[in-house]
Structures are given as C-alpha cells and as structure tokens.
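Team,

Forwarding the record for the chain on the shared tracking sheet. I've put the sequence and predicted structure together so nobody has to dig through attachments.
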Amino acid sequence: MRWWRVVGLLSGTSLDGIDVAAAELRLDGETVELRPLGCATSDYPADLREQLRSALPPGPLDAAGLCRLDTLVGQAFADAARLGVDLAGGEADFVASLGQTIYHWVEGGRARGTLQVGQPAWIAEATGIPVISDLRTRDVAAAGHGAPLAGVLDSLWLEDDGPKPQVALNIGGIANITVVGGEHPLAYDTGPGNALIDLAAQQRTGTPQDTDGALAASGSVREDLLNILLADAYYRSPAPKSTGKEHFNSAHLARALDELGDEVDDGDLLATLTELTARTIADACRAEGAERVVAAGGGVRNPVLLAALRRHLDVPVLVSDDLGMPADSKEALLTALLGFLTWHGLPGNTPGTTGAAGPRILGSITPGATGLRLPEPATTQPRRLIMRSAATN
C-alpha cells in the first residue's frame, strides 16, 4: 500500500493555461486515498495561446498547423510537468496528461472521435519519467463520449457523503455535471460554462474573461436574446452527451445576434450569457432531482454566475473547497487519479456516465528514461475516494 507520487496536467477549453497538480495516491482495497501536494497554473506563451484560439472551430487547421501545435503544446506541457515535479518535492513516479482538446467530433448524438494535442514524448524527455496520456479515446472507441470523465472521481468521492441524489458540477469552458446517488450513474455536458462569456469579453473588450463578472454586473439580461440562445437543440438532447467549442463558438453567438437583429451593449451581452450558463446548469440539476450541488472549476470564481446559479436552485450550492476538494485544481487532480487507475490496470471510465459499452483501462503510456516497471495489476475496483491533508501520514 505504498503512496505513488503523481503529476496531473490538463488545459481546458478556456485556454487560460495548463493546470498542474501534484498529489500522492495509494490504493487500499476498495479505497483510493488522495493527498494533494500542490497546484499551479502554467501560462501558455501569448503567441501559442493565440494559435490555439485560431485553430479551434470554426477556424481552419491544416496538417502543418496541427503538427506544430502538437509539438508546441507538448513542449509547454513539458515545462508544466517540471513545475509539477517541483511541487511534488522534486520527485514523481509518473505524469498523467489530458492534453489540450482541439476537436471533439460529435455527430448524430454520438461521439465519433476526439483529438487532444500535447505530444507526451516531450514530457517524458523533459522529466525522465513515464507519461500516461490520450485518456479519452478508448472510451470513445467503446461507444462512449470520452467526456466528461469526472464521473469516476465524483462517484468515488461523494457516494458516501451528503444527500442523495447530489450533483457534482464543473464550470470550465464547458459545464458538466455528475449525478451521484441517483437511480443510475450519469454525467454529461450541460452546455457552455465560461466559453461564450469569455468569447464575448474578448470580442467586446479585448480581455480574455469577464473578471469577477464585472461586465455582467453592469448590464441587464436581454430576455429576447436569451430565448434565442435557449432554443438550441443541445439542451434538450438526452444524456449521455458531450459538446465543446465545435458547437458553442463565435459562429454560434453570431447566429444568435443576427437572429435578434438588434444592437446589444457590452454589459447586457455578458449579463445574458452569464444567465444562459446559470439557467442551463440549473435546469439540468433540477431535472436530475439534485438535493445538493457541489461546484468546482474556474466559473465558481465568478460571483455573478454563482449568485445566478443559487438564485435558480432551491437546494444548497457549495463550492468543492467546502468539502476538502480544491475547486481550482479538481480537474488536474482528476487527471492524476485517471493516470493512477491506468497505472494499476484499473478502468478509468464510468460506463453509465459516458455511455461506453463497458469499463475500459484508459490511455497510452510513454516510458521515461529507464525501463517501464508497472505495479502488479490491482484486482479490486475502488468504491470510494478519501481526501487526505498534505500533513496526514
């Protein structure tokens, strides 16, 4: 029952940098124990961030551009991995990387493919330790959506804690929920989280986000525009389902504004998009009969969004920090957990949440500087996750 020191890396659809978390994990029968060691964000260089923004749909991307991005993002993730090893005290057993999603191919309500860049060989070369990457594709190949993968962490972490059913919510560029304690395992993307808010802030002010919801607070919700946005068929499609900036992007927003045919000032636009995110999340939580909502992700740092969400829900809405799970690094810790499960030969998907045909061991392993030595595969699937303090032995 040794502790394994793991570095978790990912960059979400907001493109605001690479989230880094170092943690120790160990497996004790049906229990995974997780002890955070530190977290940070490694910023993308400004020119690389702009290249990524331009490559996302509806922007064009050819093979040369894809090759460059896979390399440059891999090198940026290698720098982030070095930071993660430092957070781990200068030594780690392996790195787990979810990479940077460039395209998530959904057609006819089914995920057909998914593409993340951030070539893991650069990480392995920079750190000398193994890298577990490409963690979504096996689930997609098994008829799942490959997203959201948070279901495995949320179900282990919250199954024995709190009222039933409850919803674990992540508000990144895209918002997703996991229903814990319901009749069936369930997780899905509800729609835009920060994606349209960030897009509008960039278009209208030249800044990449509406910091503290200040622009939204200065305006009023335009119900006419909100109704056009809410008419999108995605919100009424059944779970399991997933989405991304392939759908909720600049073209999507432009179509809605064109249909409105009226000028919308900056504050009103941001207020309306913030309300859209809150309303669609709340609708999903109510539909699942949530008795409590536990939120994480960058969106919880937007007080206007969080207040709107609480206004639309008549159940407690907590931030995951309240229960010992760092809201800012939850997804990076999820990545570390996914890598840990793969390292031990255990499935990392929750089939009822993604729609996969069954449990699958996720990802591919890139060896480090020395021979690859995996532990003996575990024979018991974990049923719970316990968060430990960094000071706990």
